[in-house]
Amino acid sequence: MGRLHLYASDKAQRDKRQHMAAERGGEGGGGGAVLPSAVVDCALYEDGHRIPGQVTLDTVMKRIDPREGRFAWIGLYEPTEEQLQEVAEAFGLHPLAVEDAVHAHQRPKLERYGDMLFLVLKTIVYVEHETVTATSEIVDTGEIMVFAGPGFAITVRHGSAPPLDDVRRQLQDDPQQLGCGPAAVLHAVADMVVDRYVEVADAFAGDVDTLEAEVFSPGRPVDAGRIYQLKRELLEFKRAVMPLAGPLQRLGEGAVPGVPSEVATYFRDVADHHQRVSEQILSFDELVSGMLSASIAQLGVQQNADMRRISAWAALIAVPTMIVGVYGMNFEHMPELRSPYGYPAVWGFMAIVCTVVYRALRRNKWL
């Protein structure tokens, strides 16, 4: 439901943006090209302030000027190859980065193509559920790609990646930060993604604690399939988070061209939050592995206990079975066969032997 809502919201914004751009036609650009329908929002900024009005690609290309503090921020959601290619040609994006942005399914990474930075981020959404089952979906992943270059920042979202409306509004409310240019957009998006990691990690901790309490509570062992599913979802979470450590460290060190030192300082804070989440994930991994081992061990202990009970009852049944089997043989001369007390004597003997065996088994905790 969450992904459908995000998709419907993005589609509505794209349709509205396309309609308005079509109506305005070549505003500021003399009949310039209409922005692709995959564009959710497009704006020009000067000294940290948004320039009012709708724009076309021609308008953007004519008015951006990094030396005067003017840059464009274009946001797209699941563009086709043709739609992204239109933007790529306008801004001179590297073909390899464009290919990654179209097909998605990339590992988190930071790449530099000339004076342009290309950052890939994996987003995580926590899927609400009552309890962890063997088929539960706990996390859902999406992707955000950010192109940051002289005079432009382009964000491309795929899957369940959350909209960047709030990020854009927060930056627009802080002109000083936004005045740092495309690097500020790069930081704001990375900060939002890592903050979501923290939220998902805290929610994931609840699932781990609940299942851990069930594993070590008295009663039947927890289904190992539930623990294994939790481990699988944790692995997906881990694959999204862990590779981002390297790029954030590089950005925080201030050694990446195009990232001012004041923005690099903020990236160090993002890296610290990322480190906290990484440590949580590693601890979750150890706990879940321990739970899986404990569950398998409990299952083995339970099976051994069941086998001991079965063996104990088999031993109890074996005593009267042996005596009855002996007296069931068709021999003419057998002890006590013609005695009037033979029948009750046999029953009494079986009862005494069974009682002795039962008490011995109870004393040794086989029953």
Describe this structure in words.
- The protein has 367 residues and is of the alpha+beta class.
- Helix content is 57%, strand content 15%.
- It is rod-shaped, with a radius of gyration of 35 Å.
- The chain starts with a helix and ends with a helix.
- The relative contact order is 0.08.
Oligomer: single chain
Mean pLDDT: 84
Tell me, what's the shape?
rod-shaped
End-to-end Cα distance: 52 Å
Radius of gyration over alpha carbons? 35 Å
Query: What about the largest sheet?
Result: 7 strands, mixed
Q: Number of DSSP helices?
A: 11
Strand order of the largest sheet: 2-1-3-7-6-5-4
List the helices and strands and how they pair.
Layout: H1 2-24, E1 39-46, E2 49-51, H2 57-63, E3 70-77, H3 81-91, H4 95-103, E4 109-113, E5 116-126, E6 139-149, E7 152-159, H5 165-172, H6 175-178, H7 182-215, H8 224-241, H9 245-252, H10 261-327, H11 342-363
Parallel strand pairs: 3-7
Antiparallel strand pairs: 1-2, 1-3, 4-5, 5-6, 6-7
Helix pairs in contact: 3-4, 7-8, 7-10, 8-10, 9-10, 10-11
Quick rundown:
This protein has 11 helices and 7 strands.
Keywords:
disordered N terminus; alpha+beta; 7 strands; 367 residues
